[in-house]
Specification:
100 residues
Length: 100
């Protein structure tokens, strides 16, 4: 039940056994046909399409750069705000300890 069942490899040739008390000859197997190579279509770039491709690539670079800069700015603002809160809390704790 839990034993894996692997498919037969492409180079598998089954061995034909004859059943006792029968004089049947083994059936010959025919080889599989060779795989057909797919033809690749070539893409021809005109000057207009090359310019559009370059402009699209530049736009992608600008958008990704803007997103990364905004993420970096958000992390920097969060870090500064945590630092300010830490300074304020430290001042409050020292002020409370002096008041005793």
């Amino acid at each position: 039940m839990f034993t894996p069942k692997y498919p037969a490899p492409d180079t598998y040739t089954p061995v034909h056994h004859t059943v006792p008390n029968q004089s049947a000859a083994p059936v010959p197997t025919t080889p599989a046909p060779a795989p057909v190579a797919l033809a690749r279509s070539t893409i021809q770039l005109t000057p207009g399409s090359a310019l559009a491709l370059a402009a699209g690539g530049g736009a992608v670079v600008l958008v990704v750069g803007a997103v990364l800069v905004s993420l970096l700015l958000a992390v920097a603002i969060a870090g500064v705000s945590v630092a300010v809160v830490a300074v304020v809390l430290r001042l409050l704790v020292t002020d409370m300890q002096k008041g005793r």
